[in-house]
Design a protein that fits this description.
mainly alpha, two-stranded antiparallel ribbon, 372 residues, two-stranded antiparallel sheet, 4 strands, 16 helices, 2% strand
């Protein structure tokens, strides 16, 4: 067990993970509990914002698994993120039956559109366990079917990227239709409570933040466990030399299908945690630009590093939050410029940019040790 843990991370890396977890999972709640008059007080309005960043970190890990380690550039992972969000949104809408504007057992948008009964696919979502199962199972099943059809047909490279983006765009157009039963253009919103806890309460927002932090750490450790195993080595071999790996007896379709489905379910989990913290889910979450942003997160942080993907998601979204408030029209230009800059000068991302310096320090330390 100890040897396996050291394979996953070195002692220093485990220490770093622990420090980051304590800083995010303990320090922020403690600072939030301080009186508002204190200079160290962490304001309540920032808690859901940081919770959003944690959700984006989970989605970035899913994207890094499929692109950084398997070499599959998906431009459609926002679909799985949104599907997880819709699953959680359906539960939140069902749990507030009778509390809406129309005091009906149906969601308000269905009453407004003169629906007489719930669609069959809404049944069961009043139970939290069923909702959690479905919000993971349905995106996973869609990814499994789509992946089996594409990987079996040997579709890869830019062609696969285009197909994934087309799938996401088609789903977005479908969800925009009122007849689909998901709120159309407005989506699902005006949520009241989660498991009986009011979503507007500061304590609930803090609890959702802590759950998101725990989910991010758990997801990171799961991904790290996979990439440091034999399965992870096969995935990187498929990324670097698929034909040679297949010649050695490894069926690439099965490995790609596994990591693709896992990645989709991780994005769905991120979307499910995202929705109660922002209070809305609509088809705009499926727009192709959101999927492209996920790829930019990973590229900026450093694909194939996991930690870099999370760092990239935090930095890009932190910059987005600041720029969209200070210079609303400048964000897209800044995002495009950032992507070009990273591609030209930091092809291995921010984490990879520090690798030469770390290697130089290691060589210098070895020389000093040899000299003594």
């Amino acid at each position: 067990m100890r040897e396996r843990l050291l394979q996953i991370h070195s002692r220093r890396a485990w220490l770093a993970v622990g420090v980051v977890f304590l800083a995010g999972g303990v320090l922020i709640p403690v600072l939030n509990a301080l009186p508002e008059s204190s200079a160290l007080h962490f304001p309540d309005y920032l808690v859901p914002l940081f919770g959003k960043f944690l959700c984006f970190g989970i989605a970035a890990l899913g994207m890094d698994m499929v692109w950084g380690y398997a070499g599959i550039l998906s431009l459609g992972h926002a679909l799985f993120f949104a599907m997880g969000g819709y699953g959680m949104g359906m539960y939140l809408m069902r749990s507030m039956a009778g509390e809406g504007v129309y005091r009906s057992a149906l969601p308000d948008f269905m009453v407004f559109l003169d629906w007489k009964s719930l669609p069959w696919y809404w049944h069961g979502f009043q139970h939290f366990g069923v909702a959690v199962f479905m919000l993971l199972f349905v995106p996973g099943l869609l990814a499994l079917v789509f992946g089996w059809l594409t990987f079996r047909s040997r579709i890869k490279g830019v062609y696969l990227s285009i197909v994934t983006q087309a799938l996401t765009y088609a789903a977005m157009l479908l969800f925009f239709q009122n007849a689909t039963g998901f709120g159309g253009n407005n989506g699902l919103t005006d949520f009241k409570s989660l498991l009986g806890w009011p979503l507007q309460a500061a304590s609930t927002k803090l609890a959702l933040y802590l759950v998101s932090a725990g989910a991010l750490v758990g997801t990171y450790l799961l991904c790290r466990f996979i990439v440091t195993s034999k399965l992870g080595r096969v995935l990187t071999a498929l990324r670097d030399a698929e034909l040679k790996t297949r010649f050695c007896g490894y069926e690439s379709t099965n490995y790609k299908l596994f990591v693709w489905t896992l990645s989709a379910m991780l994005c769905a989990l991120a979307g499910a945690l995202y929705v109660p913290q922002v209070g809305i889910i609509n088809p705009s979450e499926m727009q192709p630009s959101n999927s492209i942003e996920m790829a930019i997160w990973v590229a900026v942080g450093g694909r194939g590093t996991l930690a870099g993907a999370v760092l990239g998601a935090w930095l890009v979204n932190g910059g987005k939050s600041w720029l969209t408030a200070a210079f609303p029209s400048a964000w897209l230009y800044a995002l495009g410029g950032l992507f070009v800059l990273v591609t030209l000068f930091f092809p291995k991302g921010l984490v990879g940019a520090g690798a030469p310096f770390a290697a130089w320090l290691a060589r210098r330390r070895r020389k000093e040790d040899a000299g003594t």
